[in-house]
# Entry
Amino acid sequence: MIQGFEIIKCPICGSEKHDLHLKTFDRFAEECKDEFEIVKCSECNFIFLNPRPGIDVLGNYYDVDGYDPFISEDKEQSLRDKFYMALRNYNLSVKHRKIKKYKSKPGKILDIGCATGEFLENYQKYFWQCTGVEVDDGARTIAKNKNIKVFSSVHGIPETEKFDIITMWHVLEHVHDLNETVEKIRTLLKDDGILVIAVPNIEAYDAKIYKQEWVALDTPRHLYHYSIETIQKLFRKYNIKLINKHTLLLDNLYNNLLSKQLAKTGFISFGWTLLGSLLKTYLVSNKNSSSLVYYFTKELNNE
Ligand SMILES: [Zn+2]
# Structure
């Protein structure tokens, strides 16, 4: 076993029984040939990294060349960065429009994994009271400079704080203490609050095509690989129920494009896969989507 790694039970059902789902590698570590095992729980079908990096070595895997999820206006940008920023701004407006269907009046919003705070900055424009959580010191400082209250951990937020909206954009697959985090989220969510979670979808069409080269496996940074079925099982444990889900076009394009680069597939085969992914997602079912945005609310009658 890789030094600092740990074997875990299924984070959803606690079972120790699992089968190998895939063996894969770190897409940024060209020198290092470490193989990682992604397993599928025999009891509940949850797919997760096992063994996984222990909390002490986890940070090493984020400190690699090429891994920079924090493109910000504050530093010099390449043309590619500018293009990416334009797309991201478009994505921010789509997210806002979708969430507005559930919560239109200004209130309190918490973005867990807020990075440099762009999503919350957009909400400030609509007079929302914004709070973020960000583990990265540099990103947190940038977010704080936007007048956003930012905590370094969700566990640092007082339980008396209650939010109308809690969002996690591609964060839940990274969280080491998964159950404790979901439990804390439930505490922080108002009874009529809405929880919005975007994660890659392990049952996506493109995940099946690219297999170990599907970019959203992102081992060993992604610890869990959710399906529509397993994410519901996780939240049901905490009396949180799914009320809706949808796809985001840009997330689909992004995953397909980066997977093509990783797998070094030719342009024609990339084109067919992308076309298949979009047709299956938009014409058949969003259960084929590369990633999904889930909407949850608290289940109150069980208390
Ligand atoms: Zn399980």
Notes: The two ends are 43 Å apart (CA to CA). The CA atoms of residues 215 and 259 lie 5 Å apart.
